[in-house]
Amino acid sequence: MNPPIMNAALVVALETELAYRGPERRGGENAGLVRLMAAVLDEVDYGLMLLSADGLVVHANHAALREMGSAHPLELRSRRLRARDPHEQQPLVDALEAARHRGVRCLLNLGSNEARIGLSIVPLPLALSRHASGNAVLMTLQRTQLVEKLSVGAFARARGLSQREEEVLTALCEGLRPTQIAERMGVAVATVRSHVHNLKEKTHCRSMVELVKQIALLPPLVTALKTPGRMV
Predict the structure, then answer these.
(1) pLDDT band at residue 10 using 50, 70 and 90 as cut-offs
(2) What CATH number was assigned to the domain covering residues 8-144?
(3) Which of 82, 9, 1, 12 is CA-nearest to residue 228?
(4) What does the alpha-carbon distance between residue 57 and residue 74 come to, in Å, rounded to a whole number?
(5) H/E element holding 110?
(6) I need a surface site. Which of 14, 36, 150, 152 has the fewest CB within 10 A?
(7) β-pairing, 74-77 with 106-110?
(8) Is the pTM of this model over 0.85?
(9) CATH annotation of 149-216
(10) Is 138 within 8 Å of 122 (Cβ atoms)?
(11) What does the alpha-carbon distance between residue 104 and residue 94 come to, in Å, rounded to a whole number?
(12) SS3 helix, strand, coil % of the chain, rounded to 5?
């Protein structure tokens, strides 16, 4: 599933939502730790959100902001996460409260069809709030693609692949078949199969399944063109 396309107005709205910097975040005893955690989250190309023990979104990294388009099952209202589908709101509330008050980890699925995503909800041993006790929560959004294009590009440069070979590899990581790749690139299927042969030779992989798996396991790289996350 491709990541939802966010228009400029939506990006601005989300960034404005997270621009609040109250006194408990500016000079509180945990302010330095929050800044450090935010910097770490922004270097990970997974959608990550940090919530305080009182349920407020403290930080959303660039990937989370990028993914939360109008079709995303989650939305941000008054610095609180909500499910767009009213029927999914209670399961989300229950999972967050279990993490915040009882330290329970949870995997949760929201949305339907192509918009369906998985969430990982993990309690942290710090409240990040002066108004509530309990656990802060780290929420991880399911990746929308098996392999990020930036990771493919870095892998291609490290292995000395040609531009055409990189294009074929990118398409294979998207799950396209040789006939679909040939149509996209405007070449014959035989040409695509020749590129596939070269890819296996240059990467010392016995099959394309092995190659795609190898790339999928690479640490995620963060693009220099990222939209910075906001810390409150």
Answers:
(1) very low
(2) 3.30.450.20
(3) 12
(4) 13
(5) strand 106-110
(6) 36
(7) unpaired
(8) no
(9) 1.10.10.10
(10) yes
(11) 11
(12) 45, 15, 40
DSSP string for 178-227: HHHHHHHHTS-HHHHHHHHHHHHHHHT-SSHHHHHHHHHTSPPPPPTTPP
d(CA 78, CA 100): 19
The H-or-E segment that residue 159 falls in is helix 149-159
Q: Where are the domains of the chain?
A: 8-144, 149-216
How buried is residue 34: exposed, middle or buried, by Cβ count under 10 Å (0-12/13-18/19+)?
buried
Burial label for 223, CB within 10 Å (0-12, 13-18, 19+), is middle
Compute and round to an integer the Cα radius of gyration of the chain.
21
Quote the CA–CA distance of 96 and 135 in Å, as a whole number: 10
pLDDT of residue 129: 82
Report the b/e string of 103-126 with b at 16+ CB within 10 A.
eeebebebbeeeeebebebbbbee
Whose structure tokens read 């790339």?
Answer: 215
Here the tokens at position 92 are 């989300």
- Between CA 11 and CA 98 the distance in angstroms is 30
Name the CA dihedral angle for 71, 76, 80, 83, rounded to a multiple of 10 degrees: -10
